[in-house]
Amino acid sequence: MEISSKENTHFFSKNTILPVDQSSFKSESSASKERQSCCGGIKIFVGALSFVYFAKALAGSYLKSTITQIERRFDIPSSLVGVIDGSFEIGNLLIIILVSYFGAKLHRPRIIGAGCLIMSAGTFLIAMPQFFMGRYRYERFQSAINSTVSISPCLPDKSQTPLSVLEKSQGKINAGCEKEAGSSMWIYVLLGNLLRGIGETPIQPLGITYIDDYAIGENAALYIGCVQTVAIIGPIFGFLLGSLCAKLYVDIGFVDLESITITHKDVQWVGAWWLGYLIAGVISILAGIPFWFLPKQLAKPEGRKDSNTSSEQSKFITEDNKEQHKSYQQQVKIAEMAKGKDFLPSLKNLFGNPVYLLYLCASIIQFNSLIGMVTYKPKYIEQQYGQTSSKTNFVIGLINIPAVAFGIFSGGLIMKKFRIDVLGAAKLSLGSSFFGYLLLLSLFAMGCENSDVAGLTVSYHGTKKTTDYEQALFSECNSGCLCSTNDWDPICGENGVTYISACLAGCQASNSSGENTVFFNCSCVGTLNSSSQSSSAVVGPCQKGNNCPKMFLYFLVISVITSYTLSVGGTPGYILLLRCINPHLKSFALGIYTLAIRVLAGIPAPVYFGVAIDTTCLKWGSKRCGGRGACRLYDSSSLRYMYLGLTLVLGTVSIFFSVAVLWVLRKSSSPPDETLSANGERGACGTKSRRENFVSSDHLIQTTYWPERETRL
């Protein structure tokens, strides 16, 4: 009624000569106040939404940084970690349709606030197993844990071990089995990540449409660009937080840190992975608070009140004197949607568009490549180059992610600066993928050789291993020792060879305790180093070769350039998607695109990448109650070829589909087909007819949503 009274006042003033009085002055002042309150309200919403984007991006990237920590803490293989990582997409898909359809009709800010609470609850649930599953137990020789009892690592028989020590150790194992037999605590991590996906669902669709509905037309793109920019900053802080927590021991605050005999450089080290989730959960709660106090609707700007093309929602807004006709049209439209009369023809029309179909296939395969590569990139750096989890996360957060952000910005800038048409966008997207994967090919030559591990990568005589490792773990030098092949307590001999345990190294004595433990009279060390009479070893594996630090530096340089190159093609590819579909199918096409990426890439890629990585394991850990645990040692060469090879094969296949997209576009840009594309029958886009449309709406470059682009490294 307030808007209609203003319109009547304006209409009356145009047709009647009246002196300027206080009433007209008051109406102008009230209009200016309304404009100021509208601008102030939308700016508050943009600031709050930016903080929410930061919070969800931080939590998502922090999960990526803790993949190896979770794997070691729960003693699970990489394939199972992939299932946990993909559960976020499953949660998102469960309610995306309900939220997208019914959310716009309800109180959007409060729904976003409720989503933040659910997201924080899921984040807290991920950290909960730390408080219920007991303290972390790593494999370590008894004398290294308790210096008051002197035990020889090489035990000819059990009589050499004090009975009290054996009973105590066996009692701990039985107690641990009783505690672990009833539950698998990693399920809580999976459910928490699933809950995170449910809570994150309303943020993007409802938040962006709210800005688009109530922001001034020329400011909408700027506001959405600010939100997306802040979202890219989130992963930087997420990986840096992961780097900080990885340096802290997992049970910090619960145990005496002086009693810990391993450091953050040890392969058995597990950082305080749970601490970052508590921090991320608190940030999510704080981010959701402002939305409970924001209004359901804001006053529309003057330029948007009578607009019919400002947004999809405004297309169905009619004048106030046609309110009954409006509600009737909406009821008819909802009834038609419920019957599904338009769904199948729209779907057929969409998939009958060759450009859309080919680009969808190319995107699905490329995102399979990128998601798998990003998920296991921390593990690859740790295992291939012998880096700690802390340093790995620091490097990714401080170097790789800024390169991705700069690449996305550069792609949009190139499109706007040179006013590239649809055909040029296809070429730019194809060139970005081609050169990016070409650079990735060079990483095959930038790997480290396997560490010398007696019985696994080399024999006890110094030659390369040729027999099965279970049999090769025993040799003449340790045949008199009672050793277990399930133990993983590596020591470094003075000959530069790593031994799985002090017992398998044939060590007869030790002194000191903790990380300063030194083993003496190791018969297997003396086999390879006959000139030395001491045959000693220290706790922890030996460092990788001298060339490995140099290779790691080369890897970082190429990785940053590759990340930037691949990211440049993100925005042009998305513009290609928007320009080559019929306007009335745009929302439907984007929904199908996002759904396909999540279902066919976001969920399966981490799983089969994890399965492939598990095939390169040389030494599996064992759980306290039996059964296979997490992998302790990977074959560096096999891991490199499997990880990079799978990424490159998928990327190459996506390039072939991109070439097909370019071929169809070239064919459709010919004169005979240009008329068909103008009528909208084919759905393919002509470059000449689309160029002006692109220039007139180039603000879409800033508003495009590349699924999970803030974590694509």
From TrEMBL:
Membrane topology of the entry: Multi-pass membrane protein
Family to which this protein belongs: Belongs to the organo anion transporter (TC 2.A.60) family.
One GO cellular component term noted in the UniProt record for this chain: basolateral plasma membrane
Membrane spanning residue stretches: 40-59, 80-104, 110-132, 220-250, 270-294, 356-374, 394-414, 426-446, 551-578, 590-613, 642-665
Protein's UniProt name: Solute carrier organic anion transporter family member
Keyword Membrane: yes
PANTHER family: ORGANIC ANION TRANSPORTER, SOLUTE CARRIER ORGANIC ANION TRANSPORTER FAMILY MEMBER 1C1
Cross-referenced SUPFAM superfamilies: Kazal-type serine protease inhibitors, MFS general substrate transporter
Domain Major facilitator superfamily (MFS) profile: 45-669
PROSITE patterns with a match to the protein in the record: KAZAL_2, MFS
Organism: Oreotrochilus melanogaster
Recorded catalytic activity of this chain's protein: 3,3',5'-triiodo-L-thyronine(out) = 3,3',5'-triiodo-L-thyronine(in); L-thyroxine(out) = L-thyroxine(in); L-thyroxine sulfate(out) = L-thyroxine sulfate(in)
Superkingdom in the source lineage: Eukaryota
Name of the gene encoding the protein in the UniProt record: Slco1c1_0
Gene Ontology biological process terms from the UniProt entry: monoatomic ion transport; sodium-independent organic anion transport
Keywords, in A-Z order: Cell membrane, Disulfide bond, Glycoprotein, Ion transport, Lipid transport, Membrane, Transmembrane, Transmembrane helix, Transport
Region feature Disordered, mapped onto this chain: 301-324, 669-690
Residue ranges occupied by any Kazal-like domain in the UniProt entry: 471-526
Primary localisation category: membrane
Subcellular location: Cell membrane
Annotated Polar residues bias: 669-678
Molecular-function GO term, any one: sodium-independent organic anion transmembrane transporter activity
Gene3D superfamilies, A to Z: 3.30.60.30, MFS general substrate transporter like domains
